[in-house]
Amino acid sequence: MNGSRGWRTASTVLAGVLVAAVVGLGAYFVNVAATRRTSPVTSADCAGANFSAPLGPLDQPSSVHHYAKEPAFTIDPARLYQATISSSKGDIVICLVPGWAPTTVNNFVTLIRNHYFDDLRWGRDPSTAPGGPVIQGGSPNSDLTGGPGFQFKDEKVVSPLYKSGSYQPGAVAMANSGPNTNGSQFFITLSSFTLSANYNLFGEVISGLDVAAKVKKGDPMHLTVREQLP
User: Fold this and answer.
1) Looking at beta carbons, which pairs linking 62-69 to residues 24 or more positions away fall under 8 Å?
2) Is residue 174 situated within a structural domain?
3) Into how many domains does the chain fold?
4) 2 three-class SS
5) What's the rounded Cα separation, in Å, for the pair 185 and 170?
6) Residue 119 located in a structural domain
7) Does the residue 48 lie in any domain?
8) What is the pTM (predicted TM-score) of this model?
9) First CA to last CA distance, the chain
């Protein structure tokens, strides 16, 4: 069911809860065997890594904004992934860390590869009620509604970018509408933001946080993703 959502914290109800509406039912199809082949990388060390050219489509659906089920697990958990959000205001470069949230990174990488996010528009900036130092995007409707047709489970927040009850500046996490309702909408924190650890934290902005601070609701985005080379 589509609809915009509010915000929630660990112990108090603030003006609302950071959320995104996610639609569709989908099974949880993580390939556990694949995640056990190698030890997952756990640090956001993209600045010192070499990366491939942008990855191309992989099992792209006929409609890039609708999946019949959750994508297969295809990333290498022992490698980092680097996503770039491009706009007329500059680039936001994100280090995606499988060791923090392997399922989230896998789904995000797949959606980027298949051009899910291209030309979508940011649905939230800090001026969007109820406010907060975040930007949010990934809605196929370019607002705060909808998702990719599947939902996937929550992953425990283990990143050092969550501490003392707050998502730290540059944290990249999934928006949701309650437990196990992750889809395509995500947010970036511009400064320390007090919020319960209920949002899969899967990446860190390694450059362009100043660009993120300039994002306005309605601005378009274009995403590409690269894989760390061996």
Assistant:
1) 64/114, 64/115, 64/116, 65/116, 65/140, 65/148, 65/149, 66/24, 66/148, 66/149, 67/24, 67/26, 67/148, 67/149, 67/150, 68/26, 68/149, 68/150, 69/26, 69/27, 69/29, 69/150
2) yes
3) 1
4) coil
5) 16
6) yes
7) no
8) 0.83
9) 42
Residue length of the chain? 230
Domain span including residue 117: 1-40+66-230
Q: Where do we find the tokens 């082949």?
A: 37
Instruction: Please check whether residue 40 is in contact with residue 99, taking contact to mean a CB–CB distance below 8 angstroms.
Output: yes
* Residue in 138, 185, 132, 193 with CA at minimum distance from that of residue 161: 193
Residue with tokens 């609809």: 3
Within-domain flag for 163: yes
Domain at 117, CATH number? 2.40.100.10
DSSP letter at 213? T
Q: What are the pLDDT tens digits along the chain (230 aa)?
A: 333 343 433 333 233 334 433 333 333 333 433 333 457 888 889 988 999 999 999 999 999 999 999 999 999 999 999 999 999 999 999 999 999 999 999 999 999 999 999 999 999 999 998 889 999 999 999 999 999 999 999 999 999 999 999 999 999 999 999 999 999 999 999 999 999 999 999 999 999 999 999 999 999 999 999 999 99
User: Can you read off the two tokens belonging to residue 228?
Assistant: 């760390």
Q: In one letter, which amino acid is 178?
A: G
The closest alpha carbon to 134, from 194, 207, 200, belongs to 194
